[in-house]
Design brief:
Blueprint (H helix, E strand, L loop, with lengths): L3 E4 L3 H14 L2 E7 L6 H5 L2 E6 L10 H11 L3 E3 L9 H9 L3 E2 L4 H8 L1 H10 L15 H11 L3 E9 L2 E6 L2 H19 L4 E5 L5 E9 L5 E13 L2 E7 L6 H17 L4 E9 L5 E7 L6 H8 L3 H9 L16 E8 L1 E2 L5 E2 L2 E2 L2 E3 L6 E5 L6 E2 L6 E9 L2 H14 L1 E3 L5 H8 L2 H4 L7 H7 L7
Parallel strand pairs: 1-2, 1-4, 2-3, 4-5
Antiparallel strand pairs: 6-7, 6-8, 9-10, 9-12, 10-11, 11-14, 12-13, 14-21, 15-16, 17-20, 18-22, 19-21
Helix pairs in contact: 4-5, 6-9, 7-8, 12-13
Bound molecules: adenosine-5'-diphosphate (ADP).
């Protein structure tokens, strides 16, 4: 039995975990940086310990301090949320060694799926389709060019240790390939401390479709359907919805089965996500597995009625999943708009500052997950997401209309946000018709007057 959880995160996800724990009667310990003293999760948790300075490297990434806090406060488990240490196999291993339950998969699974090329190889052996590409990292330019020609341009060069949409370069021919290959390597070295890169066929205008997985410690693995995350800026998700307007019941069945096989191949436990790219013909290709809860998990919660954070805690406690694949029903349509402190008109430049006014929408079918409030100052040190608006209804049309309505009520003063952009997208015919691919946002921005934002 888990009685007390340390939340090794901040922002809306920390608050989300506090809320789930409250409902389960589990005590919470918040750890926070000096910049997050005023954060809502610190105030709502049962206990809170400051673990260091504002920079993530001095606080939220300090595994040693987090584990010390866990020992001092005598917690049974650590929930890592997303980002920070959530996909750090070493941290999960340290928790295992200290007899503190890491709410997530075993460190072995994180290590396996964390290396993108090893992950691809693992799922390929289980019969899951992958994007054609190199078998692993490629070390020489000559070898890389040879393979790029064989696969055929365009080619995407990706960092083995990449994440968050960073560390990717696209090349259309031998000349640009040679240049991009070296840029990618040095960027990867700088960003991830690991210059290793691999290459893949660049799928033109795909959809990004991912499957939510739940796996218990007794060998049962099920999927909770897909999320369509094709609306992206700089390869980072901005809008997510479920079900995908593109996916047919037959394709859902095949992709879902394949996702379950991928998770089984990693001996996976807890909540995870299998990400695919899907081309216009409905061919799907595994790109990676995220071995943690995702930002967009709430979309799946509203469609299926399953509380994913509670499921994570139940699974970590060794409980069996209470339902089978056949019990999972997709009864609603849900859409999430990420509310970021960014200026869409200035290439999504961060817009930190103080919220002179914050008023969140409500009403039927509207959920807001956010840690901010009127008077809150957004620290400049972290991710720019300050909230998630999730709207749902019995079908896609209602969910989209509801999202537009809720966005119109959402008031945030003092900083720039993505709210006006989301409003414009919710009334854009291409999006409404369900035609958005990963190329959509750039195309939309190029035909929309920036003064709208
Ligand atoms: P990260 O881990 O950094 O998020 P992913 O591998 O998940 O990287 O890819 C993020 C996004 O980059 C995808 O959703 C897609 O838009 C784009 N992308 C990645 N690989 C390819 C590819 N082979 N072809 C086309 N687009 C790709």
């Amino acid at each position: 039995m888990i009685q007390k959880i340390l939340i090794a995160n901040r922002g809306e996800i920390a608050l989300r975990i506090v809320r789930a724990c409250r409902e389960l009667g589990i005590k919470t310990l918040a750890v926070y940086s000096e910049a997050d003293m005023q954060s809502l999760h610190v105030q709502l948790a049962d206990e809170a310990i400051c673990i260091g300075g504002p920079q993530s490297a001095d606080s939220y990434l300090r595994a040693d301090r987090i584990i010390s806090a866990a020992e001092i406060a005598d917690v049974d488990a650590i929930h890592p949320g997303y980002g920070f240490l959530s996909e750090n196999a070493k941290f999960a291993e340290q928790c295992e060694q200290c007899n503190i339950k890491f709410i997530g998969p075993k460190s072995k699974s994180i290590r396996l799926m964390g290396n993108k090329s090893v992950a691809k190889d693992t799922v390929r052996k289980a019969g899951v389709p992958i994007v054609p590409g190199s078998d692993g990292p490629i070390d020489s330019e000559a070898e890389a060019v040879k393979l790029a020609r064989k696969i055929g341009y365009p080619i995407i060069i990706k960092a083995v240790a990449g994440g968050g949409g960073r560390g990717m370069r696209i090349a259309h021919n031998d000349v640009s390939f040679a240049k991009e290959y070296h840029v990618a390597r040095s960027e990867a070295e700088k960003a991830f401390g690991n210059g290793a890169v691999y290459i893949e066929k660049y799928i033109q205008n795909p959809r990004h479709i991912e499957f939510q997985i739940l796996a218990d410690s007794h060998g049962k693995v099920i999927h909770l359907g897909e999320r369509d995350c094709s609306v992206q800026r700089r390869h980072q998700k901005l809008i997510e919805e479920s079900p995908s307007p593109f996916i047919t019941p037959d394709l859902r069945k095949r992709m879902g089965k394949s996702a379950v096989r991928a998770a089984e191949a990693a001996a996976y436990e807890n909540a995870g996500t299998i990400e695919y790219l899907v081309d216009a013909k409905g061919n799907f290709y595994f790109i990676e597995m995220n071995t943690r809860i995702q930002v967009e998990h709430a979309v799946t919660e509203e469609v299926t009625g399953i509380d994913l954070i509670k499921q994570q805690i139940h699974i970590a406690s060794g409980e069996k999943l209470e339902f089978d694949q056949g019990d999972v029903k997709w009864t609603k349509h849900a859409i999430e708009c990420r509310i970021n402190a960014e200026d869409p008109a200035r290439n999504f430049a961060p817009s930190p500052g103080t919220l002179s006014l914050y008023y969140a929408p409500g009403g039927h079918g509207v959920r807001v997950d956010s840690h901010v409030y009127s008077g809150y100052t957004i620290p400049p040190y972290y991710d720019s997401m300050i909230g998630k608006l999730i709207c749902y209804g019995s079908n896609r049309k209602i969910a989209l209309q509801r999202a537009y309505r809720a966005l119109s009520e959402y008031l945030i003063r003092g900083i720039k946000t993505t709210i006006p952009l989301h409003k414009a997208i919710m009334s854009d015919p291409t999006f409404i018709e369900g035609k958005a691919t990963t190329a959509y946002l750039e195309e939309f921005m190029s035909r929309t007057p920036l003064d709208l934002f």
